[in-house]
Design a protein that fits this description.
The chain is an alpha/beta fold. It has 2 domains: about 5-105 and about 285-305, NAD(P)-binding Rossmann-like Domain (Rossmann fold), CATH 3.40.50; about 105-275, NAD(P)-binding Rossmann-like Domain (Rossmann fold, 3-Layer(aba) Sandwich), CATH 3.40.50.720. It contains 11 helices and 11 strands. The strands form 2 sheets. The chain has a 6-stranded parallel β-sheet, sandwiched between helices. Strands 2-1-3-4-5 form a 5-stranded parallel β-sheet, sandwiched between helices. α5 packs across α7 (about 155-165). The radius of gyration is 21 Å and the shape is elongated.
Length: about 325
């Protein structure tokens, strides 16, 4: 029987899914509900498996890991992000890599909208003050008629762009591969940053996008603009972003992702009143969760049948 490893289902999600039964019916599953923590443990958990279901992006499947797993031929990533897997090494070693595109797109787009509204309307701060017996008035931002700049037009970016249009915002976009057929105006990155009242990031993390929104680009942003990031933390220069938030150049930020996750206890972002934080949970709804887990298992079964689907490599 084929061997599948699940080295990092922590906290457990796959084990609670009906799809896990389908996986166990098709293969011998080596399952672990703790994070491996170090490379040696990850290798021990994966060593005998032909296919691996990678649940957590904190598990770094490097060239060294792959080379120490001689029978590994397939990695099924739960999610769309592939930055924790060395794709060049996988390609060189003949290991197929698949992911679960679009299953969380609606959930993440909705969460991005929630962050934008929470920052603009200062919902957390006003809620806290009302609970404390105050009755604050004013000081919020109306988004209707404002300009929304969307960076990246994959499934998430385009869905969020439509949500922005739905509340009456003017949408401009920048993407590495322009898609005029989607009907959104494409502008230069400089024009987007200087003209947008809200800038939302929807890029995949890669060597090309790491530090994409650096200090120089943050300095171009419209005074008092709002920054949203539900993509990956390292796409933004976090120090430059925090400096801009402190100075008031940036009016606020809604963040679901960070350089270090979970966010360290003493992280400066926790003390900033113009920032709304969530714990890398934009794509976690029951609907998105099950759709993604089901597709991750489908990708394993498709690989075993010789019909690879949703291949990244």
């Amino acid at each position: 029987m084929k061997i599948v490893a699940v080295p990092d289902d922590a906290p457990a999600v796959l084990a609670l899914s009906p799809s896990f039964d389908r996986l166990k019916a098709a293969a011998e599953v080596r399952y672990f509900d703790t994070l491996p923590g170090v490379e040696d443990v990850l290798v021990d958990r994966m060593r005998d498996a032909e296919s691996v279901v990678n649940v957590r992006s904190s598990s770094k499947i490097t060239r060294a890991v792959m080379e120490r797993c001689p029978v590994l031929r397939h990695i099924s990533i739960w999610g769309t992000g592939t930055d924790n897997v060395d794709l060049d090494a996988a390609r060189a070693l003949g290991i197929r890599v698949t992911n679960t595109p679009a299953v969380s797109a609606t959930s993440i787009a909705e969460h991005t909208l929630a962050l934008m509204l929470a920052v603009a309307r200062r919902v957390p701060q006003i809620d806290a003050r009302v609970r404390a017996g105050e009755w604050p008035r004013g000081g919020t931002v109306q988004l209707h008629g404002k300009t929304l700049g969307v960076i990246g037009l994959g499934e998430i970016g385009r869905r969020f762009a439509r949500l922005g249009q739905g509340i009456g915002m003017r949408v401009v976009t920048w993407t590495m591969n322009p898609k005029p057929e989607l009907g959104f105006p494409h502008v230069s990155i400089e024009e987007l940053l200087t003209s947008s009242d809200v800038v939302s990031l929807h890029l995949r993390l890669s060597e090309q996008t790491r530090g994409f929104l650096d200090a120089s680009r943050i300095a171009l942003m419209k005074p008092r603009a709002i920054l949203l990031n539900t993509a990956r933390g390292p796409i933004v220069d976090e120090r430059a972003m925090m400096a801009s938030l402190r100075s008031g150049q940036l009016g606020g930020a809604g963040l679901d992702v960070f350089d270090v996750e979970p966010l360290p206890e003493d992280h400066p972002l926790k003390g900033m009143e113009n920032v709304v934080l969530s714990p890398h949970a934009a794509g976690i709804t029951p609907e998105a969760l099950e759709a993604g887990l089901s597709l991750a298992v489908d990708n394993v079964l498709a690989y075993f049948s010789g019909n690879v689907r949703n291949a990244v490599v």
